[in-house]
Design brief:
33% helix, Immunoglobulin-like, rod-shaped, 4 helices, 4-stranded antiparallel β-sheet, alpha+beta
């Protein structure tokens, strides 16, 4: 019985099923890599790491495709076509992947801030601390009155009196959430001389100390204006503010129609 030659044994090992399997792998990976690369290249939002996946898929595709194309004696025209399609897709994906990786690395390099020089401050015996900033003096864009005076703004007559003696109860709170150091209480009287009701939410009274607004104090008997003021009606209501413990200048800003007008009057005094 004649023995098989080495050449015959070698060709038997390279079965058509092996070549077809490589061609299928090359086709699948080539289409996947090329599709992912074209998706990223046309402006679709993908993670920067997608370009590295494209390059990896392209390398696997080229290895499988070239191995399948390079083997001789293809018995299937379909496997050869699949291998070539996969190889071409791998080449396209590899080119786009290298371009995409380069663009990502360039973007990262440009957006990374350069480290600037570090300035070291050495202590000096003659260096003194900067003086504290002086208190801010607010710009009062409106009439300035003393406590107790009466003034008409936007057809609404306003009178503010006080401060009155007042000790907050245990239920009192400050609108800014800070502990109540000292409460300054005043009485506001307004007369609506217009032809329409005065919105209670629009009657704005604010306290200002050294240019900064201070919190309203709300207590069991201090809740501000709660009802609209009808035409011709006069109402009186209390207000209180959380001021420093030491005597301090206080500005009370009153805008009786804050929802529709920016006209304000200012009451100035020390509490």
């Amino acid at each position: 019985m004649p023995l098989a030659s080495p050449s015959t044994t070698h060709h038997a090992a390279e079965s058509p099923s092996n070549r077809t399997g490589l061609a299928i792998v090359a086709l699948i990976f080539g289409v996947l890599a090329a599709g992912l690369a074209l998706t990223a290249a046309t402006g679709h939002v993908l993670p920067p790491g997608a370009w590295y996946l494209v390059v990896a898929l392209a390398v696997v595709t080229l290895c499988c495709g070239l191995l399948s194309v390079g083997r001789r004696h293809h018995r299937s025209t379909a496997s050869g076509a699949m291998a070539w399609i996969g190889t071409v897709g791998g080449i396209v994906a590899l080119v786009l992947g290298v371009w995409g990786m380069t663009d990502v690395l360039r973007t990262v390099h440009h957006t990374t801030p350069a480290a600037g020089p570090v300035q070291v401050l050495h202590p000096s015996a003659d260096r003194t601390a900067a003086p504290p900033a002086p208190p801010t003096t607010p710009t009062l864009a409106g009439p300035q009155l003393a406590f107790g005076q009466t003034y008409q703004v936007d057809n609404v007559t306003v009178r503010l009196t006080g401060p009155h003696s007042y000790t907050p109860s245990s239920m009192a709170t400050s609108s800014d959430g800070s502990p109540i150091q000292r409460a300054a209480k005043f009485t506001v009287t307004i007369t609506n001389n217009t032809s329409t009701p005065l919105n209670a939410s629009g009657v704005d009274v604010e306290g200002i100390v050294h240019g900064l607004r201070v919190g309203h104090v709300y207590d069991t008997d201090i809740a501000g204006l709660t009802q609209d003021v009808q035409p011709g009606q006069t109402v009186t209501f209390p207000v209180a503010f959380n001021v420093p413990a030491a005597p301090t200048p206080l500005v009370l800003q009153v805008n009786p129609q804050s929802m529709t007008s920016t006209d304000k009057i200012y009451y100035l005094g020390t509490v």
